[in-house]
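Q: what sequence does this backbone want?
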């Protein structure tokens, strides 16, 4: 394994810039600046907005790679945990209000398997395959790196909370995600290779500051479900939703990357998911979800909630990306003054990837 492939998990990222009073309080507390944590703005905060989602993301990252200059013991700081619980409650209440359940977990999975005929799809992967440019794919990969550089880690938390057939099947799928015993095949490493082919920085958490709230929310959902035993059904539903939708979406992304000449390593990440997730889909549906509902049938509503909440947040992210790209500007979060400059088309009417790089991150 090369040094560059080890880079994503070798060191902790720096703390991000705050986006409002909630995230400012968290970042300040982790910097030990003495600023007290305050929930005064929580009632007025958007549960899906930048401030709350960044605050949650930073607090959750203490359970993953942490941050540069922040002690490992802050992971279990009582004040931070109390603050996090309040943010989680607001986020979870909003999701339960906005995501109806009642038709059943397996029915929800069936709905995810309905694919549009031919090129008729209108989602992000259809856009990228059909008309996406190299800069669109770079932005997409930069944003998805917030999850894919730790792929499968949030779902591993559910393993000690499952039993029998569900546990055995979940471990089998996770084993594949972590390279099936081969370090060079760990999916997070394969994604780092994809990023290198696209000319992106592979350091873990590097693109956090340019990620919009919609992206943060999709990653936070996994952490929210994973860190609470009471939400084990929802995490199982989330995992099932990812696996069921992965194979066809990955096929379109591999085609998009080949069309723009991104490189063999870039396409390989998605090629791997086309094959692996086609198998995983059946294992997850019949043995992980089926096994869980067989042993704990009272969790069906939670499994369905996990499936539908995943789709709800992915739809919000997709709408953000497509609105930006179809409007001719970057989907990345940029400084207000720089956003207008980054959205200006070049001489050929296309965005210049390096112009967007200058305005969003030193390395993008």
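A:
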């Amino acid at each position: 394994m090369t040094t560059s492939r080890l880079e994503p998990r070798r060191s902790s990222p720096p703390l991000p810039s705050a986006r409002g009073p909630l995230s400012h309080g968290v970042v300040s507390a982790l910097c030990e600046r003495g600023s007290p944590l305050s929930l005064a703005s929580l009632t007025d905060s958007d549960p899906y907005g930048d401030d709350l989602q960044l605050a949650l993301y930073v607090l959750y990252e203490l359970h993953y790679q942490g941050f540069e200059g922040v002690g490992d013991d802050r992971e279990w700081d009582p004040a931070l945990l109390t603050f996090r619980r309040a943010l989680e409650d607001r986020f979870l209440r909003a999701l339960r209000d906005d995501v109806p359940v009642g038709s059943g977990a397996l029915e929800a999975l069936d709905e995810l398997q309905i694919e549009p005929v031919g090129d008729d799809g209108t989602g992000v992967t259809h856009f990228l395959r059909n008309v996406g440019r190299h800069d669109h794919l770079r932005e997409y990969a930069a944003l998805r790196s917030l999850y894919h550089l730790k792929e499968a880690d949030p779902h591993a938390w559910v393993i000690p909370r499952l039993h029998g057939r569900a546990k055995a099947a979940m471990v089998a799928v996770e084993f594949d995600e972590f390279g099936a015993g081969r370090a060079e095949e760990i999916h997070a490493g394969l994604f780092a290779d994809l990023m290198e082919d696209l000319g992106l920085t592979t350091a873990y958490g590097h693109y956090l500051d340019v990620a919009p709230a919609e992206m943060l929310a999709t990653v936070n959902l996994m952490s929210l479900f994973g860190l609470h035993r009471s939400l084990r059904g929802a995490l199982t539903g989330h995992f099932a939703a990812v696996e069921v939708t992965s194979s066809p979406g990955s096929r379109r992304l591999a085609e998009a990357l080949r069309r723009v000449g991104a490189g063999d390593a870039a396409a390989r990440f998605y090629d791997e998911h086309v094959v692996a997730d086609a198998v995983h889909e059946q294992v997850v549906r019949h043995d992980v979800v089926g096994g869980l509902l067989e042993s704990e049938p009272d969790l069906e509503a939670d499994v369905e909630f996990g499936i539908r909440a995943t789709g709800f947040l992915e739809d919000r992210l997709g709408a953000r990306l497509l609105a930006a790209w179809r409007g001719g500007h970057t989907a990345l979060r940029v400084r207000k003054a720089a956003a207008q400059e980054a959205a200006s088309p070049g001489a050929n009417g296309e965005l210049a990837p390096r112009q967007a790089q200058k305005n969003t991150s030193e390395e993008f």
